[in-house]
Write a structure and sequence with these properties.
Blueprint: H1 3-13, H2 18-25, H3 29-41, E1 45-48, E2 51-54, E3 78-82, E4 87-90, H4 93-99, E5 108-114, E6 121-123, E7 128-131, E8 143-146, H5 149-159, E9 162-164, H6 166-177
Antiparallel strand pairs: 1-2, 3-4, 3-5, 5-6, 7-8, 7-9
Helix pairs in contact: 2-3
This protein binds zinc ion (2 copies).
């Protein structure tokens, strides 16, 4: 069994501190801290007053963006489903594109978002994005997802921005965010 899974099981059994866990596995505290940090980032545990606890279901706010904390509008939502079933939500493609950099790509099972026009669920990795246009449905600089390039291009004609693939959209977003100021691209 993976050590992290084992840790979750032990916490369920009543283990409460990193020290207890380190002793159990006969590994350094540093190693346990690293595991705990991962588990915390995955939203599976919380640390409270020095005690480790499993996160209760109701504490997992699935309706909040992992990047900016905004409520997630289902129409724009961007969801990463990690191996093991844990979901990470972003409010829109803007935050979704930023979020992926903080996730281990190998651990992502699927990434889902919706086509901006049809609202159909689409594979986010295979989608087309209009990045940096003047239409900003949620966060700026805006990124809007589409199932096909044609629709994305039509949208970009009206609102500006570049039509790019997922990976290029991540890079482009990084570029636009440099200096932390809002960048508008007009055509
Ligand atoms: Zn967000
Ligand atoms: Zn957003």
């Amino acid at each position: 069994m993976d050590r992290k899974e084992e840790i979750l099981r032990l916490i369920e059994e009543g283990y409460r501190t990193a020290k207890e866990l380190a002793r159990h596995f006969n590994v350094s505290l540093m190693t346990i801290y690293r595991d705990l940090k991962d588990l915390e980032e995955e939203g599976l545990i919380v640390r409270r007053h020095g005690n480790i606890e499993l996160k209760k279901d109701q504490e997992i706010r699935e309706d909040t963006c992992a990047v900016c904390g905004k409520d997630v509008d289902l129409r724009l939502a961007f969801i990463y489903i990690l191996k093991g079933g844990k979901k990470v939500h972003a409010c829109c493609a803007h935050c979704g594109l930023i979020l992926v950099k903080g996730l281990d790509r190998d651990r992502i099972e699927v990434a889902l978002t919706r086509d901006f026009i049809t609202c159909n669920p689409i594979n986010a990795f295979g989608a087309f994005y209009v990045v940096g246009g003047s239409a900003s449905p949620c966060c700026s600089p805006s990124a809007v997802a589409f199932a096909d390039r044609e629709t994305a291009e039509k949208f970009a004609k009206g609102f500006g921005g570049d039509v790019v693939s997922f990976d290029d959209a991540v890079l482009k977003m990084e570029d636009l965010m440099k200096g932390g100021q809002r960048v508008d691209i007009t055509i």
